[in-house]
Amino acid sequence: MAAGKQHDRARRGESVRRWAPLTALVLAALAGGAAALLGQARAADAIWAAATVATLLPQLWSMLRSLWRRHFGVDIIAVLALISALIAGEYLAGVVVAVMLATGGALEAYAQGRATRDLRELLERAPRSARRRTADGGIEVVPLDAVAVGDHLLVGPGDVVGVDGRLLEPAMLDESVITGEAALVDRAAGDQVASGVVNAGAGFGMRATTTAAQSTYAGIVRLAAEATSRKAPVVRLADRYAVAFVPFTLVIAALAWGLSGDFVRAVAVLVVATPCPLLLATPIAIVAGLSRVARRGVLVRNGGALELLGQARVLLFDKTGTLTTGRPRVMGTVNAPGWNRDELLRLAASVEQLSQHVLAAPLVAAARERHLGLSTPTEVTEEAGRGVSGRIDGRSVRVGQLVGDWPQWAQREQRRAELEGASIVWVSVDDAPAGGLLMVDPVRPDARRTLRRLRQAGFSRLVMITGDRQRVAEQVAQVVGVDDLAAQCTPAEKVERVRAESAHAVTVMVGDGVNDAPALAAAGVGMAMGATGATAAADVADGVLTVDRLDRLADTVEIARYARRIAVQSASVGMGLALLGMIAAAVGLLPPVVGAFAQEGIDVLVIGNALRALGGGLRRPLPPQTRQLVDRYAGEHLDLWDAVEELRAAADAVATAPRTPSAWLPDLNRVYDRLVTEVLPHEEGEEKRLYPALAGPLGSSEATSTMSRAHVEIRHLVERIGGYLDQTAGPLRNEQIPDLLAACYGLAAILRLHFIQEEEDFFSLEDAGP
Q: What string of H, E and C letters represents the secondary structure of 108-152?
């Protein structure tokens, strides 16, 4: 409570400091006006002159410091306007200019405060301490810097997790500060938890896996601090405008004075030209853009990077962890004759429970998703590059490479896996090959849609550079739709490619690994996929996607382009109106006082326009009811993918022994039951509920028409398979086997394509899907 009161006092103090200069100047202007109305002209002039001098001195000091640093800015005109008003005795015009500058400063402070609110809150909520379990079972509160890897920490309800760690028990978390997603998330014991998330449920224990300095939240706070401390880049853009605008203004003022012989006209020109639109409106738009991308889960280090994002035309991607998830997944199984796919996966996952290999976690996760009971392994050994072996339920199980001669079926499956861009983790039981697990690093569901959005946003060239094999890289490139591809690249070759592209246009590089760090640093803007813990990439990048969604990159680019467009628009409109006023003042139509009030109106107009950058530029989010439907059917997809693999495996069994129904009929019947009880109701629900709800966000019902046609074909093929199962009391006739296989393989292919299309086009919509 004390900290909260201190924070409230600090905010009140900040508000007073923000508005005090403007309040004092307004009171001075009113006091001078009252004196003038009472016939005290000298007193009025004295008050107005004092207010003008009080504004001039800090402005003059700021301008001289800038010139000392060889920085030529538009604040020169403001200083000249104040000085010339004092020289000409136009004290009322001077105080109006002073009020105008103070108004602009207060509005800028207010707008910047509003725009950076999310970043400030991020810094303010950074945890300072943690509860640690002591050796005797007690609890001590220690500074966060004192937490070491392996410490047992306790997180109370409402607490912010201080360091990255692993949960010791289930927890309900609010991860919005890290991911940008507002929904609460349930995490199971053993799951990783990132620092910065909030405990939204009961207290829980966790084991620290990083120190405070190395944690996710510390990195985000560092980025946020840099983002709020850097100068907004369009100030540089404004200063580039000043190179032409300031001399042009001085020439017009000189001509107005020289041709008319009236110095007051020159004063009026300078007063009207005072460039608050450049000094204030443009930075407001950029800072607003920084705040908006922060709310989307993307932290950009400074406004310069945001400005470049608004200009970039070439985008380079790494593959693994950027266009793909970076986390291998079990895509299917290949079984030796007589082996069951679930038993094969259960044995492999049981052995891998004690392994630290990168493929161990997805194997164990796949087994748990299928609710397979894992056994505790014994005599576990691991050979680097060869695999893991151990004993499960009295049997010797080896997971990794095959030893000895490969059977024919294994050679066939190996060739098929290579064609599909997958790898096989082989499983041997009692020294005999039992089968293999197909592993694939899947393309992100939102990748293709994101690249389409990036093209629409203005990128003319998309390039994938990766260290992976040519065939695998080509398959990913075809799926996501890039313009060019460079495979098997070393980090140095990635840098060379980035520099080559940068010679022709502003470039953006997106990556996640240590090997991407040099390329990120070489690009005009480097964006790191920071949600996977790629600290080396994040350290050199200009921005970090703290949420593991590629579509947030498209959000960032769209916001950057919109903010820059608003900034340039504000500057252009402001200078255009000022130019008209300068011409009117030069010919004597606009006295200094009237010109000062006119410039005040221009300032309010362009600053209000700049505040538009706090919204707009993005698609409307899905309605809550539609999002719930998308989440529901996207979640069902996770279970139904397994049915597709079962169908393919059953078809393989039919093809292997078509005259022996006892070898494949039970499996095919089980798959058919899943198709009838799970797949068809899922497709029917999409047709009746999901697709109509998506018609609005997608523009029309035509956007889902091809998917509806796929539903018809899926039902037709399921009914064909069911028709054959009704007449399989005896062996199938020879002429029936090809049609049954065609129905099974065709249905598996259609379901796979249909699911992928839905995940890319529907479930990857903004903020939708798991």
A: HHHHHHHHCHHHHHHHHCCCCEEEEECCCCCEEEEEHHHCCCCCE
